[in-house]
Amino acid sequence: QVQLQESGPGLVKPSGTLSLTCAVSGGSITSSNWWSWVRQSPGKGLEWIGEVFHSGSTNYNPSLKSRVTMSVDKSKNQFSLQLTSVTAADTALYYCARDRYITVWGQGTLVTVSS
Amino acid sequence: DIVMTQSPDSLAVSLGERATINCESRQTVLYDSLNKYYLAWYQQKPGQPPKLLIYWASTRESGVPDRFSGSGSGTHFTLTISSLQAEDVAVYYCQQYYSTPWTFGQGTKVEIK
Are B18 and B113 spatial neighbours (Cβ–Cβ below 8 Å)? Predict the structure, then answer.
C-alpha cells in the first residue's frame, strides 16, 4: 500500500523559504492521483495548500498562491512544496497527502518559523 | 471558498450511545450530473494524521467499522457513530472536494461522558 513520508527543515527563518519533500513508496507518483499538501495549526485547523499531478499541473489555494510552488520528481518518486516569504503564521504541521478526498496521509512534519 | 461549519464543537457521549456530528456547507457540494455529494469525513486521534472514514457523503472507506455512517442532502450532512467505543475518542472533520480550494470544517471533539 502507498505510504508517504515528509522531509525537510524543521526551522525556517522569517522571510525565508520553506521547502519540503514527500517521498512516495508502495506506488508510483505517475498513477492517476493528485498529490497534495495540507497544513494544520492550532489557530486555523486544517488548511489545504494545493495539489500537483504527475504531468506538472497544479492547483493552489488562492490565499497562498502567490507564495507557493509545487513540483513532481518522477525519477525519485517524490513531490515537493516551496513556500516563500514565510512568517510566524506559517508555523504548522505540514502533511503530504494523496487524492482529493484524502486516502493516504504522511505522518506530518512540524515546521516552525522563527529567527 | 466554500465555508464548512461543524456543530457542535465538542460533545460527550456515553459508551454504547449514539454520537451525531453535523456539517453544513455554505454552498452546494452536489455535482448534479453525477448525483454525488463531494463531501468527506475524517477522524484524527492525538499525534496522528487524519484518517478517511467516509467519502461521497455516505460511502464508508474500506476497513472502517460499520458503526460509522454518513448521510445528508442539500447543504447539511451528518456523521453518526451508532454505538460509541472508547477508541472513537478523537476529533472529526468534514471536508468538501467540490471546488478548490478544498476546505475543512473546524472539527468536532468527541469524548466519553
Answer: no
Do A102 and B50 count as a contact with CB atoms less than 8 A apart? yes
Nearest neighbour of B49 by CB, restricted to A47, A100, A107? A107
What does the pLDDT profile of chain A (115 residues) look like in tens digits? 999 999 999 999 999 999 999 999 999 999 989 999 999 997 678 999 999 999 999 999 999 999 999 999 999 999 999 999 999 999 999 999 999 999 999 999 999 999 9
Q: A75 exposed, middle or buried (CB, 10 Å; 0-12, 13-18, 19+)?
A: exposed
CB A33 within 8 A of CB B74: no
Q: Which of B55, B73, B27 is nearest to A100 (CA)?
A: B55
Do B2 and B29 touch, CB atoms closer than 8 A?
yes
Query: How many CB atoms within 10 Å of residue B57?
Result: 22
CB contact under 8 A, B100 and A45: no
